[in-house]
């Protein structure tokens, strides 16, 4: 701008204006450094603000997915342990049945076998009512605390999926339906064991043979369920890892958008400080001289 | 043939004139930092031969010295018009920026404390409930998160309402200030007219006139025009507010009651002209009044409407999904949020008090299912997207106003600089003028003593023979 005539107040105002501008930049950098953020209000960069809000929301989602998956892992781990130990017990009951069939034993010995089978049935019913966080893991969505009646062995749960959302895809069901794995009422593992105990007591070898065959089928069902549970367990583990990875990469992006590049900001602050000092010094020199000093 | 004592008179006129020059310089120095003071300059004029020669008598002098033609006030009406316009624009943008900055600070985005974060926490709470539909802890957590979210939205809405109330109060004050200034300007116009008739120096009055007109432009974006009597006529919104020695009134026609409350309508004005006729402004007002009008009519209501839409969308979708589920006892879910559709953001609250009433289950009959809780958490995406868009739009608006204000600042500074170049006082220059006048005064005095000695020679020594 062409300056025709310069006056003292013009210089004062301009100097003040420049000092203000310089100080304003200094304050802005100071804010970036002290808050550690370049994005302090939406108008700092509306586009980045939207991205930051989206990223924050996604980070929260991923954290939640990880939490959901952890919870699901608890359920499936519990089911896995229970089913594996139950399988061993069913095998023992089958072996007892086979011993009974071999026939050399007398009524007293068979009674002993029958008593053991009864104990196994009781223990299996206890396992079938295993609870995780106070909920029977084989009881579906039941509000009660048992999946099977401890005496009759009937299913008292409520079938239904216990879903865990572990990502944008379909949820994972973390329960195992008690009726699917142990058989429906009247034809369940527990009925079979009661039948076996009755057959042992009566010494009916044909019935024992039938029950032993059925128990083999029950063991197969349990084994295949264990492998299904294992697959789901792996899926949840993979989801936990994926959520953690996603959270990390999202947080990195968020940091890039929101946070101050410290070395850059520090260098800029240094430069701005120098500029401000220069402005101060030149103001002091420019405003000082007056013709009065030379007129005597 | 010139008169014997003519040179005495010339020297005397020089003494007088340079006295005036020194007076002017001293006045300038005294007012070096007075706001609205324009530099004065004494203008001299040679006294010489009559401009119209007489028929017979001839002027045979060689000039009769100097006289003060007048005190010139160094201003440029064109620059004054520019300055008024730019200052009006500046006030318009500055007012908007200051207000929007305040509202923006209340949004608190992006960060861990805004509505966005509250929404994310709310969604997490539903997920946790889906994981543990049987525990009251997870249920209470949903209510607590919902409460935080509703409060965050209520707070934002209240911030906007408070700002609107503040702006209405400010508008009332500004309008009454405008009317005071208009009356002052009319009075100043009258004084200028009488000063012109009596021939006295109207400089101080003109300074005051320009200052008042500038303030009126800053407040209303009004346009001033010089009238035949040296006064300024001011038009606000295309309607005359001050004409010569008479002032009209600017009034708020609708939008703000005299007590500062809103009356539901947009803010409009009525200008009562000096002739008593009332008319609505034919163009939009500028300055502080214009900015406040824009804020009250457009910007703030738009943000609040956006917030209301977010609250409505949130409450409606959550309520619909919640009603599709079943609570802890197995009964169908009721409304989760309650709100007044006319004022959703401010009235959003939780309709549920008992944690057992939260419908987490998608299965009737009291099972510990979390399907509906998951479904509700999935219903928040729309409201979240709406809110992000709202913040984005508002942020863009603030940043645009800030940029415009910064640009305008440069323009205003440039115009002020040009005015200062012409009207500002340079102390060095005044010192030089003063020294010049001092030397000229000394020279004129020396002329007198020289003449005195010349006459002494003539009168006292002529004819004496030693």
Characterization of this structure:
The complex is a heterodimer of chains A (296) and B (466). Chain A is 69% helix and 3% strand. In chain A, a hairpin with a 7-residue loop joins strand 3 (163-164) and strand 4. The two termini of chain A are 35 Å apart. The longest helix of chain A has 56 residues, at 46-101. Chain A has a domain at 51-255: f41 fragment of flagellin, N-terminal domain (Up-down Bundle). Chain A has a two-stranded antiparallel ribbon. Chain A has a two-stranded antiparallel ribbon with strand order 3-4. Chain A is built from seven helices and four strands; from the N terminus they run αααββββαααα. By secondary structure, chain A is mostly helical. Chain B is an alpha+beta fold and 466 residues long. Chain B has two domains: 6-74 and 425-461, no CATH class; 92-202 and 284-423, no CATH class. Helix content of chain B is 60%, strand content 10%. Chain B has helices at 6-30, 77-107, 115-131, 136-198, 203-220, 287-323, 344-347, 371-378, 381-423, 427-461; strands at residues 40-46, 66-73, 223-226, 232-236, 239-243, 246-247, 249-254, 268-272, 278-279, 337-338, 349-350. Chain B has a four-stranded antiparallel beta sheet with strand order 3-4-5-6. In chain B, a hairpin with a 5-residue loop joins strand 8 (268-272) and strand 9 (278-279). In chain B, helix 3 (115-131) runs antiparallel to helix 8, helix 4 (136-198) packs antiparallel against helix 5 (203-220) and helix 6 (287-323) runs antiparallel to helix 9. The longest helix of chain B has 63 residues, at 136-198. Chain B is rod-shaped, with a radius of gyration of 38 Å. In chain B, 43% of the residues are buried. At the A-B interface, helix 1, helix 2 and strand 3 of A face helix 2, helix 3, helix 8, helix 9 and helix 10 of B.
């Amino acid at each position: 701008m062409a300056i025709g005539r310069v006056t003292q107040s013009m210089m004062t105002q301009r100097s003040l204006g420049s000092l203000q501008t310089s100080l304003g930049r200094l304050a802005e950098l100071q804010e970036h450094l002290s808050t550690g953020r370049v994005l302090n209000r939406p108008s700092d960069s509306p586009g980045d603000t939207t991205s930051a809000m989206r990223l924050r929301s996604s980070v929260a989602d991923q954290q939640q997915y990880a939490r959901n998956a952890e919870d699901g892992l608890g359920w499936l781990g519990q089911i896995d342990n229970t089913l594996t130990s139950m399988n061993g017990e069913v095998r023992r009951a089958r072996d007892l049945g086979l011993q009974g069939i071999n026939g050399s034993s007398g009524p007293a010995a068979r009674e002993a076998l029958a008593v053991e089978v009864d104990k196994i049935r009781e223990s299996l019913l206890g396992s079938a009512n295993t609870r995780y966080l106070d909920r029977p893991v084989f009881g579906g969505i039941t509000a009660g605390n048992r999946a099977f009646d401890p005496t009759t062995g009937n299913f008292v749960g409520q079938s239904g999926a216990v879903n865990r959302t572990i990502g944008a895809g379909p949820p994972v069901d973390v329960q195992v339906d008690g009726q699917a794995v142990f058989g429906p009422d009247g034809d369940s593992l527990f009925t079979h064991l009661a039948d076996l105990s009755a057959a042992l007591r009566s010494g009916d070898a044909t019935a024992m043979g039938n029950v032993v065959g059925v128990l083999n089928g029950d063991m197969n069902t349990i084994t295949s369920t264990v492998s299904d549970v294992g697959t789901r367990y792996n899926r949840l583990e993979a989801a936990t890892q994926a959520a953690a990875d996603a959270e990390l990469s999202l947080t990195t992006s968020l940091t890039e958008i929101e946070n101050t590049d410290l070395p850059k900001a520090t260098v800029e602050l240094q430069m701005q400080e120098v500029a401000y000092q220069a402005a101060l010094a030149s103001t002091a020199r420019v405003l000082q001289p007056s013709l009065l000093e030379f007129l005597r | 043939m010139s008169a014997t004592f003519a040179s005495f008179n010339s020297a005397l006129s020089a003494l007088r004139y340079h006295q005036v020059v020194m007076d002017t310089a001293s006045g300038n120095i005294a007012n070096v930092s007075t706001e609205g003071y324009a530099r004065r300059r004494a203008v001299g004029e040679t006294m010489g031969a009559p401009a119209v020669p007489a028929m017979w008598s001839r002027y045979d002098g060689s000039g009769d010295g100097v006289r003060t033609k007048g005190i010139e006030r160094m201003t440029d009406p064109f620059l004054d018009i520019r300055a008024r316009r730019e200052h009006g624009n500046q006030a318009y943008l500055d007012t908007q920026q200051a207000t929007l900055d305040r509202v923006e600070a209340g949004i608190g985005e992006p960060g861990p404390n805004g509505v966005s974060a509250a929404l994310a926490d709310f969604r997490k709470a539903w997920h946790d409930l889906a994981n543990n539909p049987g525990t009251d802890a997870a249920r209470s957590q949903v209510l607590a998160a919902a409460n935080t979210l509703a409060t965050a939205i209520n707070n934002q809405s209240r911030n906007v309402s408070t700002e609107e109330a503040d702006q209405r109060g400010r508008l009332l004050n500004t309008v009454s200030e405008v009317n005071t200034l208009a009356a002052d300007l009319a009075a100043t116009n009258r004084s200028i007219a009488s000063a012109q008739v009596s021939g006295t120096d109207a400089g101080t009055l003109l300074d005051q006139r320009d200052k008042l007109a500038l303030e009126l432009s800053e407040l209303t974006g009004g346009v001033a025009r010089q009238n035949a009597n040296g006064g300024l006529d001011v038009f606000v919104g295309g309607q005359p507010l001050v004409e010569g020695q008479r002032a009209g009134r600017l009034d708020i026609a609708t939008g703000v009651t005299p007590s500062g409350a809103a009356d539901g309508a947009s803010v409009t004005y009525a200008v009562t002209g000096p002739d008593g006729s009332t008319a609505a402004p034919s163009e939009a007002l500028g300055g502080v009044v214009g900015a406040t009008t824009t804020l009250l009519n457009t910007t703030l209501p738009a943000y609040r409407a956006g917030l209301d839409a977010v609250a409505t969308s949130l409450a409606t979708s959550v309520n619909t999904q919640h009603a599709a589920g079943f609570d802890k006892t197995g009964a169908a879910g009721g409304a989760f949020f309650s709100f007044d559709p006319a004022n959703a953001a401010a009235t959003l609250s939780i309709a549920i008090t008992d944690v057992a009433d939260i419908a987490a289950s998608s299965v009737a009959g009291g099972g510990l299912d979390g399907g509906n809780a998951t479904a509700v958490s999935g219903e928040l995406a729309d409201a979240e997207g709406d809110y992000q868009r709202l913040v984005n739009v508002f942020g863009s608006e603030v940043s645009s106003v800030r940029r415009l204000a910064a640009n305008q600042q440069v323009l205003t500074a440039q115009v002020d600089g040009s005015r200062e170049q012409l009207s500002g006082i340079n102390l060095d220059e005044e010192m030089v003028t003063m020294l010049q006048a001092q030397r000229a005064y000394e020279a004129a005095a020396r002329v007198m003593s020289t003449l005195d000695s010349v006459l002494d020679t003539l009168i006292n020594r002529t004819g004496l023979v030693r």
